[in-house]
Amino acid sequence: MSKIIKLKKGLDINLQGKAAESLVELPLANEYAVSPLDFENVTPKLLVKVGDKVKAGEPLFFDKNNPRVLFTSPVSGTVSAVNRGEKRKVLNVTVAADAQQESAEFALLDLQKATREEVIETLLKSGLWTMILQRPYGIVANPADEPKAIFVSAFDSAPLAADMNFALKGEKENLQKGLEVLSKLSGGKVHLSVKANAEGEMTSLKGAEIHTFEGKHPVGCVGVQIHHIDPIAKGDIVWTVAIQDVAAIGRLFSTGKVDLHKVVALAGSEVEKPQYYRIINGAPIASIVDGNIKKQAEGDSVRIIAGNVLTGKKVAADGFISATATQITVIPEGDKYEMLGWIAPRFNKFSVSRSYFSWLCPKKAYKLDTNVNGGVRAFVVTGLFEEYLPMDIYPMYLFKAIMANDIDKMENLGIYEIVEEDIALCEFVDPSKTEIQQLVRDGINLMIKEC
Amino acid sequence: MGLRKLVDNIKPTFMEGGKLSFLASTFDAFETFLFVPNITTKKGAHIRDCNDIKRTMTMVILALIPAFLFGCFNTGLQVGLEGFNAFVYGLVRVLPMVAVSYIVGLGIEVTYAQIRKEEVAEGYLVTGLLIPMIMPVSTPLWMVALGVAFSVIFAKEVFGGTGMNIFNPALVARAFVFFAFTPQMSGEKVWFSDWKFMGATDATTGATALEQLATTGNMQWSVMDAFLGFIPGSFGETSTLCILLGGLFLLLTGVASWRTMLSVFVGGLAVGYLFQALGVTEYPAYYHLVVGGFAFGAVFMATDPVTSAQTNAGKYIVGFLTGALAVMVRVVNPAYPEGMMLAILFMNALAPTVDYFVVEANINRRKSRIKTVK
Fold this sequence. Notes:
The two termini of chain A are 40 Å apart. By secondary structure, chain A is of the alpha/beta class.
């Protein structure tokens, strides 16, 4: 066992409504959706029209910037709609599921003998390639690249995150197979990071170098782990895969079929009975949350988030879970005025600032709403972001470099090493209420455009 | 709630298209003072820390209160009053200064916010109280107004407002008044209140502790008197004890950087002892910490996050140099006994350079890290 990598910086926000370890097997829903918006920098070009029949694993659209990358249907059925937004931008493609599910068949490769190209081809055709993301930038990997290494985080440290050991119970063989597949993709190592004292079955997996991490969020973010294992330099490309997606890739190579089920946690203070659900990717939100949201007082409403409270996407009650989400969080909307709130003691709100009292009760679980809690200002406070980014990076200087569109500085100060989730805590703690995740994405997009 | 209804009723008048829309920023400032807005997160993190700049600035104002209250008392004390009378006298004496500082300063800030169509930033709430506290109590009101106007316009707004300034605005106001009106602002009289009421006597004016130390190498007060603050000086700077109370509060709430604060004191003491060891000064080095504006500057001015160093390593360096420089100016330059103001302003100018080297070191470290891994 390698030594434990301990991270001192970070923050665990203790929220109410942690999912209990009970698993609900959801029946097949009526409709499933695939959205190009779940991925950065994808320009979809449709391959189907409404009324077409598709099997699970058959393509719905591809990425114009990278035509080999296909996005496939998670279920078999009939294409029911292509939803478009402004300027006819594709929001998602929905498929009405057949009662009898059928998957496209993919050749079963002997991984010992198969070439790298064959493995890539299978992943691309089945659509599971989109589970492989590239760092820098956090975009879908380019099959023409060869990464220096592949990184997998075996745990999620975000507030109310799903416990991956629980979610992946019984998936050990698939995980093992998935890791074998990944090791075919890179000449370098496959790194698997586990959480200290909660290693579970992950440590007995073979074919990956196992690292043990200890600390607070964002310790589970793969970008932070990469920084401490083998940091990204200019010109480096590494790939990352989420742990549940490793199992899905394993299933594909074990059975030759696309089986996109995953286990998600439904959590948050406004959930009646927080627990786990087994769903198929792209499932309707309603199929998961219906009947399980606390009744709200008049004038109150809730926000449903596909993902965690720091990085997730706001979704409508009739929307669909995004491809990357492994949890759904329901919290109260904060669209209320608060009289003299900035000077009040605010015992029920959480702050990292000791000008409030939450530092006196570290064990307390909070019910936090979506209020911004103040107006947008210029950066005033210094030395704060550094405490919540466990990387050798000066976040304030990096953010200012992005604001100034200074590409050289962004490069030198660490833009290659971060994506939104790594710095989401900076945004949470910022008393100046800057939209830092958007800022970082803008900076990354500028890098992609200019380099 | 009644008040909320009232605000909602008059709000359209100030919004775009309303009759008073040119006062939108002013209205917003008052509205957000009364009510934290109902704005929810749109992008990024869905929940946010409940701390904001208003809260942060309020903490600094709370920290200033002990020194402010003592300043009222000491103002009366220095003109021969005692007890509660001294306090009331001082309060009455200083309130016009505070009022002028806020009216002129906030007036300019609000106007700029209005022109830029931005919300009014809270930074001046602190600056506006700092300015009267670092002025001699007999500073004429028109001088305060001029100093405030100069500092807010030329030290702050031309750079882009709160958060963008290079120099501490309160100290710029003080420096402006000092250098523009040197004859009126130096000498012995200005440290004592010139208002005759409530039985205030003509003070037996005399040199301040700082001046006495600079010229004679000793002072007429005990160290304890100086520490408690029963000495003449700028309104809020005399009581090291009250300042330290405020400093403790700032450190407990985490608003001010302990790195800067500690380093200023260490820097001051180090150079103080050096001069003592070299025989340049006769009095003990810690005298420097209890007289003049050293403690006030260390606790409230050098720690200004905007104008001080932004990196942790930089904070140690800039803090240490600020303290060291302040004592150096005091001792080596007999024409000007107070070194704190100049030291902080000078280090404000130098802080970005110190940060630059700290960040460069980080960049180089990150580059070499990558080489060793390969």
